[in-house]
Amino acid sequence: MIATKALSPSLGVEVTGVGNPLDDQLISRCAEALQWRGILLVRGLHLDDEGQLAFSRRLGKVFAVRGKEIFTVSLDPARNPTAEYLKGTFHWHIDGTTDPVPTRTTTLTARHVAMTGGGTEFASTYAAYENLPEADRKQYDDLRVVHSFEAAQRLVTPDPGPEVLAGWRKVPTRETPLVWKRRDGRRSLVIGATADHIVGMAAAESRALLDQLLEWTTQERFRYTHDWRVGDLVVWDNTGMLHRALPYSADSQRTLQRTTIVGDEELS
């Protein structure tokens, strides 16, 4: 029998008793968990690529990159040609902030785990916004932020060469609201590694506010840390959860498989 329990007071649900991962009851619990708790965990489900894709398609349209709907997360260049880029995921971020419509949902399954490190942390930008003092919410509601790929990559490589910098700048920047006013009435913060500066604010003041909001959002009461076991499935609401990988050795063999579900709400 399917049962659920909270992963932390503010976010996350663990589902137990799963037999068929395509069972309507599980899909329904997943949708509910993503809407109200942000993260769903099923321990030891051991989905292969075909099974993960079948599950993902029950959640929505799977995003394909260069014709591939599943992406290998590994720091080993032999397994992942973009391994160097993944070092940026050690910093808090939301995927797709430079896209008009960010990814809605992400799934990860664990094939190999690191002996030390390699966990994934999540922080709820819904809970963070809802718990701000009312005066702060009013102050932030109409602010806008410029997001860029360069801002995220400078956290890994603060002094890039001209060719590297030119490559980063091929990805267009995007201006978004600091507070995402959802069509269902909820609100969340749009912050993280890609947040370069607040429009119309002095650089030092802008950086200080963005850093302050990131520190507020990632405090323990709004956060969940997942320690991976082989076979785990984790699904999360990318639009409302900051996430980051905890550092691990590139030779650890840590390997996760990822799918992403196409978004359906514009960030503007």
TrEMBL record:
The keyword Translocase does not apply. The keyword Metal-binding applies. SUPFAM superfamilies: Clavaminate synthase-like. Keywords: Dioxygenase, Iron, Metal-binding, Oxidoreductase. It holds the Pfam family TauD. Its cofactor is Fe(2+). Residues 5-260 form the TauD/TfdA-like domain. GO terms for molecular function: dioxygenase activity; metal ion binding. Belongs to the TfdA dioxygenase family. This is Dioxygenase TauD/TfdA family protein.
